Amino acid sequence: MPPRFTAVPWMAALLCPILVGCAPVQDFLDRSVPDLESVSQLNPADRVDRDDPFAGSPAEDYGEGFPVPEAEAVGSFTREQVEWSYAHTQELLEAVYLNQDAVFDEDNSELTGLLTGQALEWYLDNLGNEDFELNSRHLPFNLTPGTAEPIGDEVRVDGWMRAEAARDDQGWDYLSVVTEYTIVHPVARPGGHPVSTRLVTSHFGEVGFYEAGGQELEAAPMWARFVAPVHCLEEYTFTPLYEDEQPRGERPRGLREDPYEMENTEAPDSCGAVKDT
């Protein structure tokens, strides 16, 4: 194992700006509320057409999954290494956002199975961290159990990934697969009167790939996300905010943002108001 893995804990240093330490995740999370404009339907709180869950939203034109671009050599990294890094990034994103057991039941075993080396060690060691912002449970995307069920089996995705040569704060060169996606989950509140919404997640960040000997690379996921509409609660999971509910926790503030265009927001509020999804 190269000396860098035994020197300063590169995982913590690398994740600090985006995932752990430095109060990053709460600065980036958009735990927001929907536009309260009236809608002309019998039950205004039932926002999603069960036969066409994305109708009337920008997600109508989105695709499915996280397609990878054609690989080319980047800096000192070969085409084969870039190709593998794209595929591994795709696997990580699918495990986080498309695995229904993870999203709705907090079963993150698929994600855990994709982590190796110090990334896996960091993740397991910090699952019980009492510091909310240092806890590694920010890495997966989990809804609060019992608060939502999927409408259909389709999740719409729009965005891109690209590979770049990068250097971290410790001076180590690595391959960065930069990711930016909007992910849309149509969900309903379980049981009782039909109530539904579309959860829109804006995902930003990168997966850093470090040489771990020979041609092998070790992946370090580093990302942040905005999610809307959800309650502004200090919790590791996201609790959907449905149209017939009053917001719990921190009150939303500021002008309403478009949840499908959060990449244009330079300084998002930790609990900003959003338009209808």
TrEMBL record:
Keywords: Signal. Residues 41-65, 241-277 are annotated as: Disordered. Residues 245-259 have a biased composition (Basic and acidic residues). Residues 1-22 form the signal peptide. This is Lipoprotein. It comes from Nocardiopsis metallicus.
